[in-house]
């Protein structure tokens, strides 16, 4: 849906990446997701770096169609053959950092942390580890931007998250939707006081609504056998019991709304005044703060105004889940550690990365000081040093190759000492 709004538009190439360099004029007509007029010029030997979420682009100049492949390609401009290597990553790291700052501002203004987390989870949670091909395997690939997937019953209300993010997507067109959704989710967790998530980026977007997964891959909140159902769904994603429990802890944020999922009260004492749009039923009293209160609250079940879904209750009913849930209820550090790892894993499910290893947008941690690192590692003396030592040896009558045969001063001192002893003995 969002993409169809933007189709048949053109972009400013200068917005794509500051590393682009051009010298004659051409027009870039992207196949999707961009909108501003573009003037593109290419110098014959330019080396271009472009960070585009687009699967393929067509360059038009003087009615001549120029083709650009996904990663590295040659671009021809008229008879002037401009051979230009273009390296495309799925997202531009600098733009991702810019988008992260804008997401932080957005969160401060509309308190949309919970819905951003849910958006990221629902894009990734369609992954099926038994399907090898991208994008049929589902997962974090940006497919949730299409109307057909937003209309899946499990995704009710998530169109609002997309609306919040769309202006950021337009400002940072060099960020893929798949990355933007996961960036928004991880940023929301961190901004709500949760752990730092070890994220990587470079997710490639699916390019058409036909590539969306079929409905029914996400979990139900009230199935007949909740623990079995959770295992069916999360094991299909390749996740473990510990990860199921840790990830469920994301319900420490947000609310359920009867008009969306059908679960929860229309409002409670914790939600009737917002912040954000009022209403719904939260799992915790402070539902914009990421901590371990979800586990404490669903264990105690003492407050009628707090929600416990059948799948939440299963975390303390099932013996294997319970081990982790009990631990997280008393040990927030353990929860944060496991949550951060599980969230990062979830965010990568099914993704195709470009570059294949992905990349981080967190500045490198300064290296630990290691004294030995600063040694040249040489064990041999330099020639200069050998000469110096030789000169010193020779000054006292020796050489480095030949030890001094005797020490005359020492011999004289010993001789005097012996003489003095003998003299004193004879005197006595
Ligand atoms: C374990 C299976 C899960 C089930 C059955 C489930 C079900 C639900 C339901 C019914 C809602 C209410 C939606 C609404 O009415 O707007 C909800 C909200 C939410 N879910 Fe889950 N969920 C599950 C797992 C997860 C996971 C793994 C995450 C994140 C890692 C997550 C994050 C959220 C968040 C943050 C909200 C609040 C959204 C808001 O306030 O707008 N959920 N979930």
From TrEMBL:
Gene Ontology annotations of biological process type: cellular response to oxidative stress; hydrogen peroxide catabolic process; response to reactive oxygen species
Primary location group: plastid
Residue ranges, annotated region (Disordered): 250-282
Reactions mediated catalytically: L-ascorbate + H2O2 = L-dehydroascorbate + 2 H2O
GO cellular component: chloroplast
Compositionally biased tracts (Basic and acidic residues): 256-270
InterPro entries xrefs: Ccp1-like, Haem_peroxidase, Haem_peroxidase_sf, Peroxidase_I, Peroxidases_heam-ligand_BS
Ranges for domain Plant heme peroxidase family profile: 116-397
Transmembrane parts of this sequence: 408-427
One function term, GO molecular function aspect: L-ascorbate peroxidase activity
EC number per UniProt: 1.11.1.11
Coiled coil: none
Keywords per UniProt: Calcium, Chloroplast, Heme, Hydrogen peroxide, Iron, Membrane, Metal-binding, Oxidoreductase, Peroxidase, Plastid, Potassium, Transit peptide, Transmembrane, Transmembrane helix
Cofactor(s) the protein needs: heme b
UniProt-annotated location(s): Plastid, Chloroplast
Family of the protein in this entry: Belongs to the peroxidase family. Ascorbate peroxidase subfamily.
PANTHER family in the cross-refs: CATALASE-PEROXIDASE (PTHR31356:SF66), THYLAKOID LUMENAL 29 KDA PROTEIN, CHLOROPLASTIC-RELATED (PTHR31356)
Protein name: L-ascorbate peroxidase
Organism of this sequence: Kingdonia uniflora
